[in-house]
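Appendix B, example 12.
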Amino acid sequence: MTRCDRTPAWGQMLALPRALRLDSLFASDPARAQRYTLEAAGLRVDLSKNLWDDATRDVLLSLAAQSGVLERRDAMLSGAPINATEGRAVLHSALRAPHDGSGAALFGGEVQAALDAMLAFAEQVRADAFTDIVHIGIGGSDLGPAMAVQALQPFVKSGLRLHFVSNVDGHDLAAVLPQLDAKTTLFIVASKTFTTQETLANAEAAKAWFAAQGGTDIARHFAATSSARDKAAAFGIRNTFGFWDWVGGRYSIWSVIGLPLAIAVGSQAFREFLAGAHELDRHFATAVPEANLPLQLGLLDVWYRNALGFSSRSVAPYHQGLRRFPAYLQQLEMESNGKCVDMDGEPLAYATSPVVWGEAGTNGQHAYFQMLHQGTDVVPVEFLAVRKPRYGFAPQGALAGLLKEQHRKLLANCLAQAQALMQGKRFDEALAEKPPTANPALAAEALARHRSFPGNRPSTLILLDELNPRTLGALIALYEQRVFVSGAIWGINSFDQWGVELGKQLCNALLPRLESGDASGLDGSTAAALAWLRT
C-alpha cells in the first residue's frame, strides 16, 4: 500500500475544481440522478446531490487504485492480519458468511458451531416464561444490539421486553429495575474479557437486586457473551457464549454479542440479518469500482474531508426505528478512523474521521436543520428513508388511513429537506415574499437577506424498500465497508482503539483517590474537582 498523500492522484484531487454547482450539474446532465444512483443488497443510494462530477470520481478512483484499497480489501476478506498493531485478522465478514460444510468459509466450522449454540439458546429463552431481557454491556457490546432491536421492533416477539443498560451511572440500571419481575427476567452480561469496569459494575448491581428479590437461581437468570468462561462461571453463570479476538467490539453484533437481537426476533430472522450483510459483502468484494457502493461512499468521504474541508457529516434517518443509528455510526466511524498516525506510526499531514452526528427526521428538522440550511459550515447530510412502513400490529379502519398519510408526510419531508439543501432560496425570491410573521418595521432588503438560503449543500439519499432483518444487515455492512475504504485510503489502522485506553487507565488510578482524598501529583484542576466532590 502507498499512503494517499504520496500518490500522484492525491495532488490531482487537491487540484480539482471545488466550486461545483449542483444546479448546473443537473442542468447539464438530465440523466445525472440515474447515472449517480447505485443499488446493492436491497439498498438504493442516490449520490447525485453530492458535490462531484465525472472528472472528480475518475481522480478518486485513481486515488483508490494507487493507494491499494482493493488489495487491502482482499487481504481483509482473506483473513490476513491487517490489524497490525494488535496482530489480528479482521473477520466480521466471516461471521455472516454462509457455511455449507465445504470448508470454503474462513473459520466456518467454529463460526457455525457458535452461531448454532447461540441461536438454540435464544429459541429456548423465547419458549420460556421470560418477559424481560436485560442486556448489560457498553460500547460495541451495547450500541449494535440496542440499535438493531429498536430498528426491528415490529419483528420482536409479542410480550417480550428488552432493556439495554450500559452507563456505569447507577441511574441507568435504576431506571430499569422497577419494571422487572425477578422470576421472569433474564440478564445477559456482554464483555469479551469479563473485566469491563462499567459492565461488571452493572452486573454486580443486577445480581444484588436479583438476590434481594428472592432470586437464587443465578444460572437460569444470568447468561454471558464472553471469551472468559472461567470468570463468568465464577460469577455464577452457566450459559456463556464465546467469540474470537478477530471480532472487534464495534463489529461484534454479527457474533454472539447479537444474542439479545436473536432472542427478540428469533433465529430465522437473525439468519436473515446475517444474509443481508453477506450480500453486501459480496457486492463489495466483486462489484467493479464504478458501481461499488462502499467504495464510492468512502471516496466521497475522502473528497469531502480532505479536498473540500468538511469536518462533519449528519445522518438523518427518516424512520423512527433507526433513531439510534447515528449513535451507532459515531462509534463505528470515529473509533475506527479517528487516528492521527499511519500504519507505520508516522504522523499524518491530513485530516481523517469527520464528526458523525444526527437525529431522526422529522425531529431533527426542528432542532439542527436551521444550521444545515443557513449556517456558516457546510455539512453533508445522509438521508435514510423506507418506502413501506411496517408496524408491530396491523392498523385497521381510520387508523390505517391516518398512518398511511403520516408516512407520506414523513417521506415528503425527507425529500423536501434534500431538495431545499440543494436549491436554496435566492435573494430576489425572498424579496418577493411577504411572510406573515415578519416584523413590518424591518426593511424588505434586510428581511430578504435573513430569508435567503445559499443552497448547493450536498446530501445522499439512501432508500430501503422495507426495514427488515435483511435490509438492516445490508445497511450496517454498507457503513462498515465504507469506513474501511476511507481508512484504507488514509493509510490508518481502522481496527484498533488505543485512544480509548488512556482514560480507562487514569480512571483506575483516580478511583481510590475519591475514597482517600489523596491529590498528590494531580494537576490543579483535577485536584480541585476531586476535593469538591468529596465534600
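The chain has a mean pLDDT of 96. The longest strand covers residues 381-388.
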